[in-house]
Amino acid sequence: MGSAAADVVLGGGAPPPPAAPEITEDIGAVYREVDPASVEPNPRQPRQVFDDEALAELVHSIREFGLMQPIVVRELPGQPGKYQLVMGERRWRAAQKAGLTAVPAIVRETADDNLLRDALLENIHRVQLNPLEEASAYQQLLDEFGVTHDELASRIGRSRPLITNMIRLLRLPIAVQRRVAAGVLSAGHARALLALEAGPEAQEELAARIVAEGLSVRATEEAVTLANRADGPTPAAPRRKPIQMPGLQDVAERLSGAFDTRVTVSLGKRKGKIVVEFGSVDDLQRIVELMDQNKP
């Protein structure tokens, strides 16, 4: 590949040579080789956790075959030959560990308020963010752009219910958030814990129990329901137990999976009942939108 003196201009003029990546949306971007030591990390990188084993595998691959996909950087104003990373921090880290002194890079103009957005989108598309990192990035984008959930969803190509539900995870106690960030608790476990009405201390206790006993998301939802009933008002006189028909539990499980919430199906003497639980008005809106999507 050529040096910085032989930049390949992308997005304008003649098309790039076949060996160079095709970039058409960024007018004025250039393809060049840069020293990874001349690149500083993205200060708004939403990803905080990098898997050491996966990084080691990438280092081995780079030593064997080189860096196949360029990183994306922007030039630092007033500092010739110095760059700031926009996308590709994992590749950049691995290239340094592999001892490379030159890596392929797309150099393009990127505004400050796009640093977080671009890094977030790359990580989302590569499924590399844990739920808390993704939630924090969404919240930061909301704060920086001053937009609604709907407007943010339109800007980054995600659904509004997904953004709303991810941000709700930030309401969990810090101790529970740490477990989610570490991958010990799934996003499904976290959403179930949000419905626990007894408060942060009870959420932390149930989170510890989930880890200790290996509770599934469904078992966690049931534990939350029981706890909420125990903390609620004195129950009315017991009603006739619903008739349990074969196949009802299977239907309930299918609906629970489709709507990502607890659904119960019961059959009385004269009629049946389906109960769909939701944690908030936003969660209810998410479920309604899913129902609308499934209309014939």
From TrEMBL:
<comment type="similarity">
    <text>Belongs to the ParB family.</text>
</comment>
<dbReference type="InterPro" id="IPR057240">
    <property type="entry name" value="ParB_dimer_C"/>
</dbReference>
<dbReference type="Pfam" id="PF02195">
    <property type="entry name" value="ParB_N"/>
</dbReference>
<feature type="domain" description="ParB-like N-terminal">
    <location>
        <begin position="32"/>
        <end position="124"/>
    </location>
</feature>
<protein>
    <submittedName>
        <fullName>Chromosome partitioning protein ParB</fullName>
    </submittedName>
</protein>
<dbReference type="InterPro" id="IPR004437">
    <property type="entry name" value="ParB/RepB/Spo0J"/>
</dbReference>
<dbReference type="GO" id="GO:0045881">
    <property type="term" value="P:positive regulation of sporulation resulting in formation of a cellular spore"/>
</dbReference>
<dbReference type="Pfam" id="PF23552">
    <property type="entry name" value="ParB_C"/>
</dbReference>
<feature type="region of interest" description="Disordered">
    <location>
        <begin position="1"/>
        <end position="26"/>
    </location>
</feature>
<dbReference type="Pfam" id="PF17762">
    <property type="entry name" value="HTH_ParB"/>
</dbReference>
<dbReference type="GO" id="GO:0005694">
    <property type="term" value="C:chromosome"/>
</dbReference>
<keyword id="KW-0159">Chromosome partition</keyword>
<dbReference type="InterPro" id="IPR041468">
    <property type="entry name" value="HTH_ParB/Spo0J"/>
</dbReference>
<dbReference type="InterPro" id="IPR050336">
    <property type="entry name" value="Chromosome_partition/occlusion"/>
</dbReference>
<dbReference type="GO" id="GO:0007059">
    <property type="term" value="P:chromosome segregation"/>
</dbReference>
<dbReference type="InterPro" id="IPR003115">
    <property type="entry name" value="ParB_N"/>
</dbReference>
<dbReference type="GO" id="GO:0003677">
    <property type="term" value="F:DNA binding"/>
</dbReference>
<keyword id="KW-0238">DNA-binding</keyword>
<dbReference type="InterPro" id="IPR036086">
    <property type="entry name" value="ParB/Sulfiredoxin_sf"/>
</dbReference>
